[in-house]
Write a structure and sequence with these properties.
462 residues; Aldehyde Dehydrogenase, Chain A, domain 1; Aldehyde Dehydrogenase, Chain A, domain 2; 2 domains; 7-stranded mixed beta sheet; 15 helices
Length: 462
């Protein structure tokens, strides 16, 4: 668990079970003081020139690179992220800041309309404080990909982070302050769910964004809707990774390994359902097993580790039950399939095969180091299997026929499709889902304008 009976969020090292942090939950009155700062921060920050805001982003990029090692080690200790991957994510955060500092101001410029003589234009105005309820699996990147465009557009950001990574939350807040961001523009509330509800209802919170489970998104989205506040939801996913007969099998295998097992498999946008055309299924399976077997599982602070412990013991237990249920339904274990005994929340890298629609690992999201292999007769059935999900976050297709892949992509019901590449996030393109994976977009100009008031300004003829 990540909280105790005395009302505090706990940071527990998943590699050894030791408590490394305790953060008492704030009262409603303490949250009130934070919201007072946020409102004051908004009144000032909204009037700061966008070029000045962009300068803070450049300062932050420098701060992140300076602090990268400490941040990567903190993420490893709080949620088990292998330190090499943690360093890469901090660098990605820094690059994100630089990209938005360079391109964001232009995206926020007023846009002309088709009204004659340039008498009307659309201006992008900040809406106000954004409440962000964030998950633990990417404790820095997940926050940064939302907060950077939100703050650049003139809005304050109020972070409710996952209780097991509060150390990462405060570390990130300090980096913003060191970069010159004024008080009241990036604030943290460490509160229980009932207090989050009060924050959503508060008029000083203008909008809400959530990354997490369908259950959390449904609950918070309903509260935001009741308060008539816009929200963006990025929720669960069970992304299809489709390998057709003419694909480069070696490239597809390498991508599937990264796409499924990075961050110990604890990724929303990941290669969860690997759908392989029948004629190449045996060759893909053999190479995939060999590649996964070669991955090193161990201490996340060691540079050679690729798979660390799962973030929490209860999550490992849930994953184990899902694997057992899938095997009981007729799937076979090619590799792994068990919790590793001893200290730490380790789970064996696992590959399930003969997975079919209706089985647990086909229907549910498996959030851990487990891959599901599904065989399709042909490309037509592969598309049917890919779309046979209540989720629609992203997907990928591997084939030598790019034009056919474009047609395939047009029929995939997902927020993103990657052709001959594994799913990734990049500030140049939007990210977001459909169906039960949520709605709204992050990143690119879509994410930058998501929490803006697109205000029409029309100079009427006299």
């Amino acid at each position: 668990m990540t909280f105790d009976s005395f009302g505090a969020a706990l940071s527990i090292n998943p590699a050894n079970g030791e408590q490394i942090g305790r953060y008492p939950y704030e009262s409603v009155s303490e949250m009130e003081a934070t919201l007072v700062r946020v409102q004051a921060g908004f009144e000032k920050w909204r009037d700061v020139e966008v070029e000045v805001r962009a300068g803070v982003l450049l300062n932050l990029a420098s701060q992140l690179r300076t602090q990268a090692e400490g941040m990567a080690q903190l993420a490893a200790n709080e949620m088990g992220k292998p330190v090499v991957q943690g360093r890469a994510k901090v660098e990605k955060c820094a690059a994100l800041c630089e990209w938005y500092a360079q391109h964001g101001p232009r995206m926020l410029e007023p846009e002309p309309t088709l009204v004659e003589d340039d008498k009307a234009y659309v201006a992008y105005r900040p809406l106000g404080a954004v409440l962000a309820v964030m998950p633990w699996n990417f404790p820095f990147w997940q926050v940064m990909r939302g907060v950077v465009p939100i703050i650049l557009s003139g809005n304050p950001y109020v972070l409710k982070h996952a209780p097991n990574v509060m150390g990462c939350a405060y570390k990130l807040q300090q980096a913003w302050r060191d970069a010159g961001l004024p008080d009241g523009v990036f604030e943290i509330i460490n509160v229980v769910p009932s207090t989050v509800s009060k924050a959503i209802e508060d008029p000083r919170i203008a909008t809400v964004t959530v990354t997490g489970s369908v259950r959390a998104g449904s609950a918070i989205g309903a509260q935001a809707g009741a308060a008539l506040k816009k929200c963006v939801l990025e929720l669960d996913g069970s992304d299809p990774f489709v390998v057709l007969a003419d694909a480069d099998i070696d490239e597809a295998v390498n991508a599937a390994v990264v796409g499924r097992f990075q961050n110990s498999g604890q990724v929303c946008i990941a290669a969860k359902r690997i759908i392989v055309e029948q004629s190449v299924a045996e060759a893909f399976e053999s190479k995939f097993v060999d590649a996964v077997t070669a991955l090193k599982l161990g201490d996340p602070l060691e540079n050679s580790t690729y798979i660390g412990p799962m973030a929490r013991a209860d999550l490992r237990d849930e994953l184990d039950e899902q694997v057992k249920a899938t095997v009981a339904q007729g799937a076979k274990l090619l590799l792994g399939g068990k919790k590793i005994e001893g200290i730490g929340n380790y789970y064996e890298p696992t590959i399930l095969t003969d997975v079919r629609p209706g089985m647990t690992s086909f229907v549910e999201e498996l959030f851990g180091p487990v891959a599901s292999l599904i065989v399709a007769r042909d490309a037509i059935q592969a598309l049917e299997l890919a779309n046979d999900s209540e989720f629609g976050l992203a997907g990928s297709i591997w084939t030598a026929d790019v034009e056919m892949a474009r047609r395939f992509a047009a029929r995939m019901i997902t927020g993103g499709v990657f052709i001959n590449g594994y799913v990734a996030t990049d500030p140049r393109v939007p990210i977001g889902g459909v169906k039960k994976s949520g709605f709204g977009r992050e990143l690119s100009h879509y994410g930058l304008r998501e929490f803006c008031n697109a205000q029409t300004v029309w100079l009427a003829r006299r």
